[in-house]
Amino acid sequence: MTDREGQLLYSALCYEEGHPRRTQHILKVYALAKMLARQAELDEHQEAVLGAGAILHDIAIKDCKDRGLKATQAEQQQAAPALAAKFLAKAGYPADFLPEVLELVLHHHEYSRPRGPLMQLLMEADLIVNCYECPPDPARRQEIRSVFRTPQGRQLVSLTFLEEK
């Protein structure tokens, strides 16, 4: 973890003000995304973008809730650009990181659109954590499995369903 990544993670956790579910979700998605990135042998820049995207992927939820909104995907997509820019700048990321990180933050729930390796890894990390936090019903499991492309992600998501058999 670089100094700026550590600062970004710290800032995001402080921003959540101890909210148990959101704080733990950030930590779990970040850890899984970093592990998947190492196994995918990403270069340093790609790993940094993915790390920042994993930290900030749901950053707009609190803002939406604080404003009395339901935090739908559309509402989060409206709030996320300003928040991501603020957090990245505060942590010392160069301005050219914003578009790549924002792409991950804005579209990590759009499973049917074409995606590059960073989006794939973030989607897999987020879905694995989501499956542990709220186990899907049997009908949804196959749909979830269809999103996975990496061997490690496929194995991990299968493990989340073991107790449900």
Strand percentage lies at under 5%
Q: Give unreliable regions as ranges.
A: none
The mean pLDDT is 94
C-alpha-based Rg, rounded = 15 Å
Helix content: over 70%
Strand count, sense and barrel status of the largest sheet are: none
Number of strands: 0
Question: Structural class from helices and strands?
Answer: mainly alpha
Total of DSSP H or I helical runs spanning 4+ residues = 9
The helix/strand order is HHHHHHHHH
Beginning-to-end CA distance, first to last residue: 37 Å
Structure description:
Helices cover about 70% and strands about 0% of the residues. By secondary structure, the chain is mostly helical. The protein has helices at about 5-15, 20-40, 45-55, 60-65, 75-90, 95-105, 115-135, 140-145, 150-160. The termini are far apart. The protein contains nine helices and no strands. The model has no long low-confidence stretch (mean pLDDT about 95). Helix 2 packs antiparallel against helix 3 (about 45-55). The radius of gyration is 15 Å and the shape is globular.
